[in-house]
Structures are given as C-alpha cells and as structure tokens.
Amino acid sequence: MANGQQKAQENLETFEVWKATQTDDDFTQIIFRGSLSRVEIAKSIGCGKSALNQNPALKAALIQLEDDLRDRGVLPPLTEPAKSDPFKLKHYDNTSNQTKLNSIRVSKLEVENIELKAKVKELENKLERFGELNETLSDMGFMPR
Predict the structure, then answer these.
(1) Mean pLDDT by 10-residue block, N- to C-terminus, for the chain (145 residues)?
(2) Are 69 and 19 in contact, with CB atoms under 8 Å apart?
(3) 130: helix, coil or strand?
(4) Percent of the chain at pLDDT exceeding 90
(5) How far apart are CA 17 and CA 135, in angstroms?
(6) Of 51, 60, 74, 76, which is most buried by a Cβ count within 10 Å?
C-alpha cells in the first residue's frame, strides 16, 4: 500500500501523462466557469477532487497548465481580482454560528426588556393613582381594618 507522498507522486505523474495526451479541443470541452473543471480532471486521472487542491505539486502543475492554455487562447483571460490573488481563500470563522445565535438571543432579550419596561411604567402609574386614593380614604377615616 502506498503512503501519502507516494500516492501524491503517482497522481502527479498520472496528471502529466493525461495532460500530454490532451489536445486544445479536449481542454475546451472541460472548461467550467473560465477554468478547467476539477471534477472532470479528477475523473480522468483517477483521483479525488481533493487531491487537486491538497497536493501542492499537482495544484501547481494544474495552475501552470491553465496559464499555458490562457496564453494560447484556449481559456479566457483572468479578471483583475483573480490575477491579484489567485489563492485567496475565505477564512473559516468558527464563531460565526455562535455569533448568529447570540445576535438572535440579544434581539429577543431587547424586545422582552422593552415590554417589561412598558409594564413597569403602567404599574407605577396605577400605584401612583391608587396611592393617592388610599391617602384620601385614610384622611377621611374610611380605611377598612
């Protein structure tokens, strides 16, 4: 059984053989969104699509192939943002889910807080009104015992 480095080297060699057997028309048939379809390449060389991204030598060879195809006019040219940072990756934010849950929780608590403040104000008004009535009845001597 081959270890990871041997498998990576085998995938690179298989890619190089596959690349040598393809014509510009063959490459044209697997263009997807301005690049070569990684799925089709992986199927053709018999490896997983992840190998095209995780194997640095294979990834570099694929990018070099695409650059050569762009120079020959087989692939469309890169846009300016793609030229400036071709390996721009989105950083995974492991706190995004917790942040979202906290945001929802905060908004619910704010609504509840507003409702409770309104209820407190209403009860304070009632207490003030009944406090005055209680004083009046007490002054008149009508306090129940």
Answers:
(1) 79 89 86 86 87 87 88 78 56 74 93 95 90 81 65
(2) no
(3) helix
(4) 17
(5) 101
(6) 51
DSSP-assigned beta bridge partners for residue 1:
none
How many Å apart are CA 50 and CA 142, to the nearest integer? 88
Question: What's the chain's Rg over C-alpha atoms?
Answer: 35
Tokens of 53: 């991204």
Crossing angle of the two packed helices 4-21 and 38-45, in degrees rounded to 10: 100
Cβ partners under 8 Å of residue 74, min gap 6: 24, 27, 28, 31
**Cβ contact 58:12 at 8 Å:** yes
Evaluate whether 14 touches 45 at the Cβ level (below 8 Å): yes
CA distance 82 to 58: 20
